[in-house]
Predict the structure.
Amino acid sequence: MKILHLSTHDIRGGAARAAYRLHQGLQAIGEDSSMLVQRKHGDDPTVSLDKRPLGRVASLLTPHVDKLPLAFYPKRQPMPWGLNWTPSPTATWANHAQPDIVQLHWIADGFVPLHAFAKIKAPLVWTLHDSWAFTGGCHLPYECFRYRQSCGACPQLKSTQEHDLSRWLWQAKDKALRDRRVTIVTPSRWLATCAQSSSLMRDCRVEVIPNGLDLTRFKPVDKKFARAALGLPSDKKLILFGALNSTSDRNKGFHLLAPALQSIAASALGNETELVIFGAPRPAQPPALGLPAHYPGRLQDEVSVALLYAAADLFVAPSIQENLSNMVMEALACGTPCVAFQIGGMPDMIDHQQNGYLARPFESDDLAAGISWVLGDEMRWQQLTVAARRKVEENFELQHVARRYTSLYEELMH
């Protein structure tokens, strides 16, 4: 079976990493899998991009051109927002590869325009990594549910007009999904529920297949060895927090984590606990969190990331909205219990008080209580670490996930 994945990036960002891992998983079980991307950051020869001189220029310019209509909304919120209206040769390139299945992933920044769906000849499967596919343009709708009707008067655009840019984009998506049958896959049950409740996808087939993980790369490692390799203290309990732009991306919840850490610092755990923040450089003026903090920055390879998870006693993910967090899955695979708010896809991975703790949404006090509960008893912590690894082995092993996809592909081809 020949599968072609379309993804804006190959390995940059959580959605891209999930797509690339699926690509690798399919290859590992003997499938002919390749990727076509707008921006390539790795060196895998099975990942390609438009190498023509004009194609390289277009890949740089398209993300900026695609966002030009947003200039009509100067007061809009600084949130991720996309349109995918600009012309693109992606459909032509996809058809030239003659795949049996075309697998869409995160295709924002104008990589796969909506009008291209009808031009792609092979069956289309679209894995959603956020909410963009069924909204009028936002990737994170938060408490807005206008996507259940037809968008318009978009709060993120600060628009009061029903026939605004979000309505126009909703109409374009409605046409694209009516002109071409697309099978939807969501990695979390939560995102499936959102998609099925949307006006755009309520008539689509929606399947839940989680992201997968290579458990030979992400696995428990001796904690003393991991800490020595990374230059971290061996005699402290370490709380790990990380994300791309971990301290500046409001959706990642650092502003909710800070009060929880201050509470931990004032508790009996304060003197024996330190913090590790990765994914962002050390700020010029570090926030007062009450705990000593280490900033390893952005780690560029999975070996170092896996070592960091294994070095920690706990990983905390205070996100406001999250599909199926790669980082939570990676931490669990390394035997590190996780604490998060009970939102999005977190309950798909974290079993409350079995391999971690699910705090009441956006209550920093309960987040602190969860951290204390995990770290406060050594025997309980040991049980949590075993359950963390077992959860991933039983549900998210990469080749098992790849086989679930091939079963879907084979069904769609017949």
Notes: The chain has two domains: 2-212+398-413, 223-395. The longest strand covers residues 2-9.
